[in-house]
Amino acid sequence: MLTAMSRRSHRLENSGYYDENMEPIISYKETLHRIFKRRRNRRQPKRREAIINKSDNNRGFTTYNLILSLLYCGLVYMILNHNFVDHGLTESPVSPTITIEDPTAIYTNIEKRLRHLQDEVLRFKEEMNSLLPVADVMPNFALESLGSRVVFSRSSEAYQTQEAHLTFLGIPLRKPPVSPRVVIQGHSPLLPGRCWAFAGGQGHLFITLSDPVTISHVTLGHISKDISPTGAITSAPKEFSVYGMKNVNDEETHLGTFFYDQDGDPVQTFKIPNHKNGFNFVKLQVNNNWGHPDYTCLYNFRVHGKLANRGERSPQGCGEY
């Protein structure tokens, strides 16, 4: 009778795992470890309960569909009955007569409505423009942001107040005067103190226009009495004149003399007599003010018109900017 020989490992034999009789000296017991967890047996609903619930749902769904069908049929019947009774139609509800409107009539109706809407938009724009000052709906060619400049060397000197506004280590410092550029920067609204002042009641401002312009209007702006801290605007210009030049050294062309009303609107526009020449430079000459003995203030000045021949434009850089 043959006895089965136990399987031996040369590595274990060399490491002293067996005795002289080739019996294992060390014995161990293998422990099995489950890699995958056993899925728990969840309790499934009974087949009979599922069938009952499904039957109840189908019964409820069928009843709901039946109610909707009855309501739909009733609504269709009411609509058809209303149409045939009110209009006296004798056609069968099964085959009603369908009338198609003429496409030309549809297009004519749409065109008529569109024309009406366009008229309403134009009327609304006119009403809005009527609420704005005239100067706000015309281009301003004396605007610094468009390229206009003040020629300092040909303008009056700014008024320098004698009162010290600041002190440094006990030394009185005078506030620097406001630049005449503020007159053509287009600030809105006009605020007290944000203006250029020159000494006395007479002075002038020389401006390079952004483009050669056939001038039609000029606008002069000043704060109103309502927002003046003193309740008066005696420093506002009273009578002023406007001159135009094509070149900086040309003889001045008188465009008109105008009267600024201190009791009128803060921004007043004046029409220039018909001049067909284009001008690159404008001079604003203030002849007197409304009674202030020390200085006159200019808040805003604008030049309106149409572009002249661009070939007549003089190069900028005349004077000091």
From TrEMBL:
InterPro entries: Galactose-bd-like_sf, SUN1-5, SUN_dom. Its main location: nucleus. The keyword Repeat does not apply. Residues 147-308 form the SUN domain. It is a single-pass type II membrane protein. Keywords: Coiled coil, Membrane, Transmembrane, Transmembrane helix. The chain crosses the membrane at residues 61-80. GO terms for cellular component: meiotic nuclear membrane microtubule tethering complex; nuclear inner membrane. Pfam families: Sad1_UNC. The keyword Acyltransferase does not apply. It is found in: Nucleus inner membrane. GO terms for molecular function: protein-membrane adaptor activity. This is SUN domain-containing protein 3 isoform X2. It comes from Lates calcarifer. The gene is LOC108889577.
